[in-house]
Inverse folding.
């Protein structure tokens, strides 16, 4: 784990997003084990964090990238030099971008039958697939459920009949988020067995992301599932972790700007904001604070620096309440934080650092020129 006190001491700028590459490499180990034991291929789902320094590091350690847009495809291709696989699936494929996107990507998982019929040509060089919806829900929060009622994500497998459309060489599945067991994968395979057994000549099957491999002790179920699928269904199976690689490798350093009492509760105003990690506000999450003492005798509300009333990280306990100038560190914010961050109220985005062992490299710092360019 990253040295908290050293990080606070050595970083020049606050707020700051820090990516610990040692933790990313640790998160790769179970995936490399799965790949070696099953023969599957691993893609990084870069929507979790598309930092170029990260992509460059991963490009020779994985089999490619999974993207959701033309810009992501451009960046992945530029960083990797065109090496490895590049898969894309998204509801938002644009006709005016498709020629370039299809030239960059090796695999396209069309999100709907109409999207496939409208954009695909038999002369295209990529391998065409369909994202399918097995109509099995595993998410407690429906906002995260790709298989819920009226889903926009994938073709209802019940509508595909006995055979896939001509030209389809692969299938893409994605049914979960943040899972620490493989029961959903086993349930999906069990439900789809009759459908999959009727398909012949499938070249690939992408099982999507959503599993936190580094938090699952027994990897046997996924290894056995991949072996079965590559023996009976498709020539090649792909996994595409995102949060599983970067979630617990990301930190947000922030400093206390003000401290005061509000209706009997201490409020600490930070130089960061939930706008630097919007899922806190969107999904009412309470991010992990490494400085918290759960048994501490004092509590304080940590609030962001913007004028949004709901810009609040949560209530935390301390042995001693921090004071103005103290630095605090949030953990497990590597995924879907920096990529969603914005400059509400004109506050700069966090500076970005990459930690490699005991070295902290400043990647970028947001400034007024970036703000002015956005609104020019």
């Amino acid at each position: 784990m990253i040295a908290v006190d050293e990080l606070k001491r050595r970083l020049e700028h606050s707020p700051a997003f820090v990516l610990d590459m040692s933790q990313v490499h640790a998160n790769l180990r179970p995936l490399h084990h799965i790949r070696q034991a099953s023969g599957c291929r691993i893609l990084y789902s870069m929507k979790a964090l598309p930092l170029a320094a990260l992509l460059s590091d991963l490009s020779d350690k994985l089999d490619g990238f999974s993207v959701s847009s033309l810009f992501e495809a451009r960046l992945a291709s530029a960083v990797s030099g065109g090496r490895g696989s590049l898969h894309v699936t998204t509801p938002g494929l644009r006709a005016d971008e498709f020629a370039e996107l299809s030239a960059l990507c090796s695999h396209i998982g069309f999100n709907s039958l109409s999207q496939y019929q409208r954009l695909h040509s038999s002369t295209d060089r990529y391998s065409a697939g369909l994202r399918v919806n097995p109509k099995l829900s595993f998410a407690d929060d429906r906002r995260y459920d790709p298989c819920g009622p009226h889903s926009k994500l994938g073709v209802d497998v019940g509508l595909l009949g006995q055979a896939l459309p001509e030209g389809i060489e692969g299938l893409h599945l994605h049914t979960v988020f943040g899972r620490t067991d493989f029961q959903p994968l086993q349930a999906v395979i069990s439900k789809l067995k009759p459908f999959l057994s009727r398909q012949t000549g499938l070249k690939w099957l992408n099982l999507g992301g959503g599993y936190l491999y580094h938090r699952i002790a027994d990897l046997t179920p996924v290894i056995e599932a991949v072996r079965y699928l590559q023996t009976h269904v498709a020539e090649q199976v792909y996994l595409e972790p995102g949060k599983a690689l970067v979630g617990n490798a990301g930190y947000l350093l922030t400093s206390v700007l003000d401290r005061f009492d509000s209706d009997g509760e201490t409020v600490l105003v930070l130089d960061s904001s939930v706008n630097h990690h919007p899922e806190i506000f969107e999904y009412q999450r309470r991010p992990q604070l490494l400085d918290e003492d759960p048994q501490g005798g004092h509590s304080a509300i940590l609030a962001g620096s913007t004028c949004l009333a709901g810009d609040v990280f949560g209530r935390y306990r301390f042995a001693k309440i921090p004071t103005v100038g103290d630095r605090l560190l949030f953990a497990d914010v590597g995924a879907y934080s920096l990529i969603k961050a914005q400059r509400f109220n004109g506050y700069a985005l966090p500076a970005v650092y990459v930690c490699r062992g005991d070295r902290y490299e400043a990647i970028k710092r947001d400034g007024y020129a970036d703000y002015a360019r956005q609104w020019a």
The chain has a mean pLDDT of 95. The first helix runs from residue 4 to 10.
